[in-house]
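Chapter summary example.
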Amino acid sequence: MIRSFIKEYAPKSIFKILKSIYDLYRRSSNPITRRVTSGFTTHYDFLGKLVIWCPGSQNWWRYPELTIKNTNLYPELLAKIQSYVDQNDTKEWEEGVSSSYGLRNPALTENLWKIFREHGSDKSTVNDYYLIYSDFIDRLKNKGPLRILEIGLGTNNPKLVSSMGPSGRPGASLRAFRDALPEARVYGADIDTDILFTEERIVTAAVDQLDLPSFDRMCESFDDQVFDIIIDDGLHAVSANMGTLIFGLSHISEGGVIVIEDISLDAIIAWRPVLNILSKDYTCGVVECKSACIGHL
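The structure predicted for these 297 residues follows.
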């Protein structure tokens, strides 16, 4: 059925490409790889998996641009609707730039810049996130030994989504936080179980950001259940970010901070409804950094 569909509707110039993708799907035995490639079968089947976004009209599948447009418009329209509700209770969320951070404790800022680089983390190379972390850590300095959790270790398997490539160093930022903060207890989690490890003051566990119960299973393997800094540096997809955020809201310490890394400028619109809601009870915002944005609360 799939082969006949491709032969009938796909131009011959791309038939071989589509066939190779389909063959890759059929040969896949690794559950992570299958999860990434599954669903790329037929035009109809792929769109049909976007159940809540597909128009409920006859012949909807013939017009995929409608499903795409419907999906992309949703957060913007939701933000507009939200703006009509409880306007008096909504506080403005913060919008900033990274150049205004890293000034509270220059020595800590410089040390983080150096240690992130030494361990191969992009938090002070491609990105300038070390500026933001310096201020957050300095703000929390009176809490005692910090408990830090980072979702996303950075896989170096080139076949997996979010891969850093074969030269990537999984757990680089975990080791950087540990070495920069001699008494901190550092935790990490990733969907790629092949890169999990345990070292001095570092413990890691498996998590799937698109499976909320997996966060609870992850947390059960840690000594700490509450954290002072929770970082999302995983799949970099809105729903995956939401999974970390939902977990974080019930596992963040008083005065602690939740950080969502690598939010693209195009994706900010998806965060507006979330920020509007959370700003009622939390101080939250978005910081535009060198290569992407960081969301925080």
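To summarize the output: Residues 9-13, 24-42 have pLDDT under 50 and may be disordered.
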